[in-house]
Specification:
By secondary structure, the protein is α+β, with helices and mostly antiparallel strands. Helix content is about 35%, strand content about 25%.
Length: about 350
């Protein structure tokens, strides 16, 4: 068979294409390797503590140089302005888009605002990594890969907000002591009656121990709805609040409260806490810094809540969890609390 020039050149071109596909596949496998994402987690933790240790210096050394990289998107001035883009390296995927303002002047103003905010922030205590928070963050990053951006912010595929989710992995010593007190109120069949009420859209669980006195505390909205759905209306004794009551069967091994076939986890009280989530394609080398810098600049977020979270003085413990997928690139979750969490049993069973 005669090989035409087209076929002659098509053969090596195909081989080159296959080689590029193989290289790309190998690179993706390396990015999704558990060892790689654990390295990124550790680097993000170090980056956050570098920021907290000296915010002003971080602004000068990390944010100031970004201004020189700022570009207009799209570059063609005849096309409508969409965003400003800053680059953290020469790799075209290492960038942050700033969709604010009507020109690159608006983008520069956002960077300047972040710089001034850091310069005005005092040095903060470094955070300590906490394994229950690491596990909670990893679980949510993995969960978020699957259409997480289509759900309300920070709500997981099981319908939980951070407090309910984190408490399946860890709790404070105080919260575990509350659980122990609660479990001593059970009758011989392992049942007890619980009360809940709602005020200004916040749900509260009421503790009415047999010895008298009472206390109440806020709980996750899903727990309040559970009591409403399965309970009956009542004026709560000694509190004079209109609420709901329900008798529950308590599974002490798994900290579950059951009403017939329905069940919900006992709401372990969480200390003050917060959560940041971010995702996007980054090179392996710049992933940690890029993800953290996005939180610091916080483009498009009016109150710069992600930055405030990183710089919250009362936070003491944190967890960082990463994963990688073709669809979203790196997904990173940062969970932090004011108090140390101890591991709780059967966390995996309540996250399925």
């Amino acid at each position: 068979m005669v090989i035409s020039d087209y076929q002659r050149y098509a053969i090596p071109a195909t081989a080159l294409l296959l080689g590029l596909i193989t290289q790309c596949s190998d690179a993706q496998q390396r990015l999704s390797d558990p060892a790689t994402v654990r390295e990124v987690e550790a680097e993000m933790f170090d980056e956050i503590n570098r920021l907290r240790a000296d915010p002003a210096t971080y602004a000068i050394e990390v944010l100031e140089p970004l201004k020189a990289t700022l570009r207009r998107i799209p570059a063609d001035l005849d096309e409508a302005y969409e965003a400003s883009r800053v680059f953290l390296s020469d790799d075209p995927i290492d960038y942050i888009d700033i969709p604010e303002g009507e020109s690159t002047e608006g983008g520069l103003a956002v960077i300047d605002e972040a710089i001034e905010a850091l310069k005005a922030t005092p040095k903060l205590a470094k955070l300590k990594r906490n394994e229950p928070l690491n596990r909670a963050a990893r679980w949510f990053s993995d969960d978020f890969q699957r259409e997480g951006e289509q759900r309300p912010p920070h709500v997981d595929s099981l319908g939980r907000l951070p407090a309910a989710r984190i408490s399946t992995f860890g709790a404070t010593a105080r919260a575990l002591a509350q659980w122990e007190r609660f479990s001593t109120q059970l009758d011989q069949q392992g049942r007890t009656t619980i009360y809940s009420f709602q005020k200004e859209e916040i749900s509260f669980l009421v503790d009415l121990p047999a010895r008298g006195g009472y206390r109440y505390r806020s709980v996750d909205e899903s727990f309040g709805k559970f009591v409403v759905e399965h309970g009956t209306e009542v004026t709560i004794p000694r509190l004079d609040e209109e609420g709901f009551t329900v008798e529950v069967q308590v599974d002490t091994d798994n900290r579950l409260l059951r009403v017939g076939e329905a069940s919900i986890s006992y709401p372990l009280q969480m200390p003050m806490h917060g959560e940041n989530v971010v995702w996007g394609p980054w090179s392996r080398q710049l992933a940690a810094r890029g993800l953290v810098c996005w939180w610091i600049i916080d483009p498009g977020i009016a109150d710069r809540g992600h930055r405030q979270m990183l710089l919250e003085p009362s936070l003491r413990f944190c967890g960082v969890g990463c994963t990688w997928s073709r669809g979203k690139g790196f997904v990173a979750t940062f969970d932090a609390t004011t108090e140390e969490l101890q591991p709780v049993d059967n966390g995996s069973a309540r996250n399925e």
